[in-house]
Specification:
Blueprint lengths: L8 H14 L3 H9 L5 H24 L4 H8 L6 H7 L5
Helix pairs in contact: 1-2, 1-3
């Protein structure tokens, strides 16, 4: 669980987008999420944006290697052009 009082930038950015789309203040969006106010449209927009963000994160995790063995390959990659890399590996250019 997150530390109490620590700001969640992801949550804050989604709240900001919902407020812009719905034409209300960010404070009002927070009140709706907390349950102090009832507004189905804001909840719908929030859930759609959150679901889209989750799908995006899942897609990125599939594309970017996070395994230690893959990370080692990335860290050992020779910088520069493809020709520089081939020379570093001893491949005839």
């Amino acid at each position: 669980m997150d530390k109490k009082g620590k700001r969640d930038a992801h949550h804050a950015s989604i709240v900001q987008k919902v407020a812009e789309i719905a034409g209300v203040s960010e404070r009002y969006v927070y009140m709706v999420l907390k349950g102090d106010r009832v507004n189905d449209n804001i909840m719908l927009v929030y859930m759609e944006l959150e679901e889209g963000a989750n799908k995006l994160v899942a897609a990125v995790k599939k594309l970017v290697p996070f395994e230690p063995k893959d990370r080692e390959l990335i860290m050992n990659y020779a910088p520069g052009t493809e020709a520089d890399r081939m020379k570093a590996e001893g491949i005839a250019v």
